[in-house]
Amino acid sequence: MDDKVIITIGRQFGSGGHEIGKMLAEELGYKLYDKELLKLQAENSGIAEKVLESYDETPTNSLLYSIVMDVYPSMNYIGSSLSQQIYQSQFDAIRKLQETGDCVIVGRGADYVLRDYSRLVTVFIQADINKRAARVAEYEKISPDKAKDMIIKADKKRANFYNFQTEKKWGAASSYQLTLDSGAIGYEGAVEIIKDFVALRKRQWAEEGK
Fold first, then answer.
1. In this structure, which of 7, 47, 69, 116 has its CB flanked by the most CB atoms within 10 Å?
2. What is the DSSP-derived secondary structure letter of residue 99?
């Protein structure tokens, strides 16, 4: 019986998904995996972290799609190309986190990869594009218009990656257990709602004997 909780966070670019995930992990005492997942992936696969970064959350070919859509790929699978090996290693790294539990994973289609984990909480963070653009413009020291262009490109990349490796739609409410607007409720508000949701799910799991 699984007794640890894994929280996955999908996010629109500039919505503060990473920050919310970090705050949530700190308050709950959970391990956070965002870019940290690349380090774990590199350690497990032997592929250089810099190489993994260039493929991060980017869709690849139909062979990988068939691997991800299959029940569970073999840990011994070695693809015929670097991209296939990289995505297999990411899949394996995410699956391996089931052994540790009590963690927050940001992005990378983790909600789908771990879809059979009994104590999984899936969250998506969104916000109005103007609020996101203002945040990105300030952080990157660029104009709001350039920030919007960056947001559109980043969101398209994430959507393509997610839609490619799952049968669900990136950002759609039906793809997640909980969808929040960080522009309306703020980071702290998002963290509190997620914590309340996790507490509710824990009570439900206890009643169900999970």
1. 7
2. G
